Amino acid sequence: MSGFDRLSPALQYQIVNTLGFSDLRPVQNQSIGPILDGDNCVVQAPTAGGKTEAAFFPLLSQMDEQDWKPVSVIYVAPLRALLNNQEDRLHRYAQMIGRRAFKWHGDVSPSKKKAFCGDPADILLTTPESLEVMLMSKKGQAQRLFRHLRVVVIDEIHAFVGDDRGGHLSAVLERLSRYCGHDVQRIGLSATVGNPEDILEWAAGSSQRPGHVVNPGGANREPKL
Fold first, then answer.
1. Which of 1, 10, 15, 113 is the least crowded, having the fewest Cβ atoms under 10 Å away?
2. Using CA atoms, how far apart are residues 189 and 49, in angstroms rounded to an integer?
3. Of 97, 168, 96, 93, which is closest to residue 125 (Cα–Cα)?
4. What's the chain's Rg over C-alpha atoms?
5. Are 35 and 59 in contact (CB under 8 A)?
6. Cβ atoms of residues 58 and 32 within 8 Å
């Protein structure tokens, strides 16, 4: 069975008919199995190599088939600009199965944040710093918002490892696990690096889930112009 065959029928239909995909890229096909199996993962591919879809197609499939409740997925990025760039894409993907995505950082208005707290979206896009602000806000709000959390996706994870912001993010992830009361799956999206196993170990933290590095290779091929 291919990775695509394991996706929910509704998502398969949307990938083919709404997105117009004739096939999945190798990194996307190879990511589906480990992510659906609940493994912590590091997904490696060059820029514009399809890492976002590699992570979110299997997550959306589970969201659809298992009726995940919001907030079920947090997408963490190091820069606001990256969140702004990904917002429309992730919202579009979520809408394919009747779900929503919301971006939260310092430039988002208080009124929009208040609306999110009253009616949370399924996917939250944020930075580590904004996530900590949410954890430190009104008593009980974090427990209510994140009680259904299943997965944290960390984009550009190689930029966090070994950095002060990485230490901060690691601590925030551990606090999130306590708020939702279970072992949260962690998925890192990375450029091709030489030590993905070390990054995977760092990402896992206290998680006891199996780990898996997805690297289909081919990143060093000569470009075709």
1. 1
2. 11
3. 93
4. 17
5. yes
6. yes
Convert the pLDDT of each residue in 12-54 to its tens digit: 999 999 999 988 999 999 999 999 999 999 999 887 788 999 9
Name residues whose C-beta falls within 8 Å of residue 90's C-beta, 6 or more positions apart in sequence. Answer: 52, 56, 75, 101, 123, 125
Any residues with CB less than 8 A from the CB of 221 and at least 6 apart, and which? none
Structure tokens at 56: 């979110």
CA 224 from centroid of its chain's CA atoms: 30
- pTM assigned to the model: 0.92
Q: What is the Cα–Cα distance from 183 to 150, expressed in whole angstroms?
A: 8
| Cα distance between residue 48 and residue 51, in whole Å | 7
Structure tokens at 103: 């971006």
Q: Are 101 and 87 in contact (CB under 8 A)?
A: yes
DSSP secondary structure string for all residues of 133-193: HHHTSSTTHHHHHHTT--EEEETTGGGTTTSHHHHHHHHHHHHHHHHHTS--EEEEEE---
